[in-house]
Amino acid sequence: MEEQKIAKIDIILFVINLETANLQIQLVDSCAKYNELYYATCSKKESHQQNKLTRERYLLKDVFRQTLLELINDEDWSVLRNAITLLQRTSLHQTQLRKRHEELKSSLEAITTQLIKRRHESEAKLRHCDLNTALLKDIIKDTMMNTAMRLNYVDKWLLARAESVDLEHREEINIPPSTDCEKRVHQQVSKIYELQIKESQESLEYWKCRYIKDIVDINERLKTKSKKFKEAVDRRTELHKLYDLHAGEMRAWLSFKQERSARLAREERSRLAATRIQAWWRGVMVRRCIGVFKQLKNAKKPQTKVKKK
Length: 309
Known about the structure:
89% helix; flat; 309 residues
């Protein structure tokens, strides 16, 4: 009986724990509903995590509800055990998936590094092949140019050789000139000489006339130049005479200025000396009461005031 009571008490405590857990889940649901506005504007990853959490909460609520019903009816919690085993299996499966994901990730990185390495190697090979193709193209171009140059040289050599052979085997045929041709040549030569003689005579006449005209012009220019030169000489002599006259006048004027300045200086010195002498004599007359200043001798002298001590 006591064991049954203890088992019932354990069941009651377990039920109470389940109820408290259920209440906690309800509180979490209410908080989640309150934060729905925040999660509405979040990213896709966060919304996916939020949906996952809601699904897990609903699963826990269902498990707790079915466990409570089973405890009330059959006094057993097989639903809870099954849920726990299912969660363990899912967690184990998730760990396996994570491990597999890490392995695949590492293998992917290794494969990508190998691919990058192979790509670099292929790029290097392609560059080397491009260089080889460029070198081959240059070699082909050089060979083609050399062959074309040699062919051109050979063609020209063959042409020159053929011309030299033709010249060696050619027979010269001397055809005597005809009398008509000789007459025609003689007439043309005589005409040429006549034309040259006529041109030389015309040029001689032209230069004779030109010489006479130039001589006349030069004589006229010489006459005008000589006339101007004579006028310039006469003008120079007149100006020289005028300059000499003005030079004498300037010398007389300078001597007059010097004499006048000396006379004025002498008069100024004599005037200053007379003024000084007059001033001295006037002072002497005033001090000694002589001449005009005799009345100053009888004038009363002002009494000097004695300062009181």
